[in-house]
């Protein structure tokens, strides 16, 4: 005779996500009947009752939910997570959610639909709202995303949750507003003064020794660390961020503030919350470019827009400081930053324009190593000939290589001279041959070729080549 324990073990053995989806489909049918003023079919109700008992009993041993690790969820939190994950793991339910939410163009349930679907008792309503709150386990552990504060905003699986449940080795998508930086770099790729390199290595100490300082020594490190990289365009700020990410073995994401900052009140904060909620608990380095545009010196508050802009900056700074992960802010204009903001960074690193010796090293590294080139294309000569940043040297070297490849020959000084001329002309200011110094004699004689560099080129990027 089968004992109650044996029966329970059998129930656990057969518990799979298929039971979860069938249960949710029965809940959907029940909600449809309720909205039409009809009683739920007795046979289906019995089926739902039996299925719910089996699902709840089997969740602890279910191999899919076990992918969540040691996260402990209440039955209500588990119900919410199952309903939200179903939109991606069982697409038919996503379509049914849309039928139950007229006018909604996405397949994810809203809090209002979840409230109806789960047929909550009066005592369960506070627990339900807590489950969807920022402080609830589901959001704190990065399992769901709630895209608004109202009952009709979608509740979505957090990025990477579906792949995690299915044990798929897929990289999680970038956080909202972030762009993955694919550049790989190591310490040997940096051409910087020793002081700056030491400062960059110190930034890593905040991460490597957090557990010791906080856990064993009682320090209060809080979030971060947060670094400010300042210097002209092309001096290696993004390259240094790539080195930091490589040392940690984490991806680097550049944050496009243009996608986050909105003219509509409240939208900027909403976008920032989505970014940091998605990044919470994930190993990654966040890089915010053009920090001076947000953290500039504060002037007199003249109207509501000025007050709101200050609120946006305060909200961004608060979220950055709360985020337990490395954030790097870059700027070309350190002097434009409010000193009150600068003091709140853990590390500030200045990136100077390269001196002659540094430019020699950059030419050595950035001229394509396997490209044929004439003997007079000498990095020592080029490093002293013209004052470019690392980004400018990279662009000029690649330009020269492409010119040589087009002609089917080796890189010559005339190719390099034209590449440097094109790079220097990017700031749209008037140029003459004398600006090239000793390279001027290698420029082509054709005025038409040289004029093409200065016509219609107003991108304002004086030295091109990135951060």
From TrEMBL:
Q: Which residue ranges traverse the bilayer?
A: none
| Stored InterPro entries | 26S_Proteasome_ATPase (IPR050221), AAA+_ATPase (IPR003593), ATPase_AAA_core (IPR003959), P-loop_NTPase (IPR027417), WHD (IPR054472)
Q: Which GO terms describe its molecular function?
A: ATP binding; ATP hydrolysis activity
Q: Which SMART domains match?
A: AAA (SM00382)
Domain AAA+ ATPase positions: 223-355
> Which keywords does this Swiss-Prot/TrEMBL entry list?
ATP-binding, Nucleotide-binding
This protein's source sits in the domain of life called: Bacteria
Q: Is Nucleotide-binding one of the keywords?
A: yes
Q: Read off the Pfam families from this record.
A: AAA, WHD
SUPFAM superfamilies assigned to the protein according to its UniProt record, in alphabetical order: P-loop containing nucleoside triphosphate hydrolases (SSF52540)
> What family, per the record?
Belongs to the AAA ATPase family.
The entry's protein name is AAA ATPase, central region
Q: Which organism is it from?
A: Nitrospina gracilis (strain 3/211)
